[in-house]
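Recall from the previous lesson that a structure prediction takes nothing but the amino acid sequence as input. Here we apply that procedure to Helicase C-terminal domain-containing protein from Xylaria bambusicola. The sequence below is the only information supplied.
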Amino acid sequence: MDSSEADDSEICYGALYDAAARVLGRVALSNHHDASNDAEHVCFRVSEKIGVHVLLSENGDEFAILDTRISSQLSFISKIPMLRFEAVVKSNIFHKRQRRAKSVSPSFPVSVNIFGSRRAADDVASQLSQASAYLQHPQSPLQPGVVYHNPQFLSFPGENWDMRKLIGTGNITDLTNEEKLSEVVGRILESLAQTNIAANEELELNVGLVSKLKMQESGLRFILQREEEAFGKQISSRLSKAVNFQTEVPLALSFGGLIADVMGLGKTLTMLSAILQSMPVAENFSNFYERSGSDRLQQLRTKATLVVVSSIQLLESWESEIQANTLSHSTADSGSHFYPGALSWVRFHGQGRPRDPDTLRSVSIVLTTYATLAADSNSNRTLYQLDWYRVVLDEAHWIRNSGSKQFKAAASLDCSRRWCLTGTPIQNKLDDLVSLAQFLRLPPLSTKANFQKHVLAPLSQGGPNFVKPLQDYLESYCLRRSEKCLTLLPALQEEVMVQFSSEERTFYNRILADTKKQIDVLISKKDSQSCSKLFSAMLKMRMRCNLGTFPSPTAGVGSLGQLHSENGCDRCSLKDEDTFVLLDSCSFCPDCRRPLYQSSPLPDSFENYGSDANANGHDADKVDDENITATGPHMPQPGFSAKLSTVAQKVARAGPTSKHIIFSCWTSTLDLLSRLLSQSGIPSCRVDGRTSYTERSKNLRTFKDDPQVSVLLMSIGTGAVGLNLTVANNVHLVEPQWNPAVEEQAIARALRMGQTREVTIFRYIVQNTVEQNIINLQKRKTRLAKFTFDTGETLSGTFEVWSLLRVVHK
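The prediction returns the following tokens.
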């Protein structure tokens, strides 16, 4: 066989997963397959018909249609010659439905194998990458003699993989290679601490700055250099050569980049210093207008920088960083970063926000939220009447979904300097970076298509220097410093294992016993609401670990914004506009992983999980109205919690100079802790989602300044972002979080720049409960690849909930 014949021989490129098919007409699925066949999988031909793809039975009849997502991906490569597609279905689907042959079968899961010539392999890989489709290993064995070669499979120099042994591993990609990719990307991020910063020029800081800049000075240089035209052209030209980008069309000038410092390194102060430093250039920008080709004036220019944040709490944090606590230029205290009047700002948020563009032109900074920005883009469009000198997105990972309201609103703003601030530029998939690049529009990869083609495609295809385009892009436009840059004493980690009392174990086991009965029922029903119901069952077990034998608040499951706050974390239980906008495109809360879609009520056995009554005649996990009325809302409830008692004892045993922050998801836990600490004579103050701004500021000030108040109780969502609490040297995490990043944010309130003492982190875990499963899941996820091409948020969230309960079930 000559080389041309070998190139034209048919091979299998791999499979596309997470597809679905629906039976056409009213003929049952079992009619198209002999259910007596013992094969684990059944294969059907796939044919394209008027823009859709259908499954063909053995006699050539069209009996099912593929979902629009997978059909669109297949259409993307349909023009490549000699391709054919094959749908793979698990045969047990036919067995299950044989007895209901006369009923209409709903949709069923499939994977799609793709076959074609070896010659076209690279073309298929490139086209699929542009469609954000990534090939996995086939589910079932291929026909004898068919070669399996995945052109998107990540390969490294010197490695020669026999891909046939990977057939049957399904959509779980080869972890060794995924781990290598994750490790390489992690190393790139770690290498960006001093990337492309020319420090040989003298930097004369603006006289309005009070604080002495430390590592923020290199960040300031990074920003100013990338907003300078000559430097920007130099970087763009170098990057074009590095990624082999060629165009005859002059690239539009666009400046900016990504500040990806980890939490606690002063991203806010870095950007505020850059705003102050560039004020003369910004003033010049606003004083001169350019005319368009039609000789009409462009939009009104403003010297202001528009800063967009994720919540009202973070907006207030920016305001506190800007405003001075002094009355004169000569008496600025050490707590202020800027002299009075150095920076002027206005809040564009709420019903009283200014509607006159001239008001926004008169200040240095305009502060708003993603929700307000999205609302303004659909109504008055006040912000869109201006050509901004600079736009800054804080917590920029909230625009990682390019279909979200906040992304579309931010991308529509007029400006030539764009910046993203986030400690997690790549949260868990490399596609997260695409939306940031799409917003930034930095040359030469200023479009989504160009970024995917020149950066992500090489990563997915592998080969020599496959990570170099990503490295070159990030080295050009990203600055990231880790906690290694801080000269802090290493934090002490203490995992506190708690044993239930016999009464607490009885309460917990009642929930566990009923959960075991329900798991198989919910999974076998293929109920679209199963994940929500399973989450609610797990939630009761998690809360019981904290509450012990104390009665818990009632909690019903409903749609986002209609839930009792105990059902979720501070992120997803808030009912404000900012939360609605940020979570609108999420299937699961990114912090606590609670399902956010509408759910039907739980089965009766979940709501009343045990028929046995406790000693007082009440359900173990339910509070009736009579009990609440009898005790009153602020009177003690009978009960005991081994975990919360342990937390109180840890605080009591600490020295008199110790300060403690205690984090929990749930206000009911904070209520009990407040009472236990008070009974022990330990003064505390508190900040949670219900705390007003005035009270919040007062309590934080008390915790910082009053030596008698040693404890700050905080809900983890409220206190995890935008606060500097280096006065504390102890951080208590009362329960493990689904998302380890939330724990890291909470810890960073104390373990950050300015901390001079050794910090101890306490993590409380009840033995032989779902909490240990969560810890094990966290450890397993850290061992696996951190950065992948997976985009299945809903599927991964469902799997996490189910896998935890599956461990409990066993």
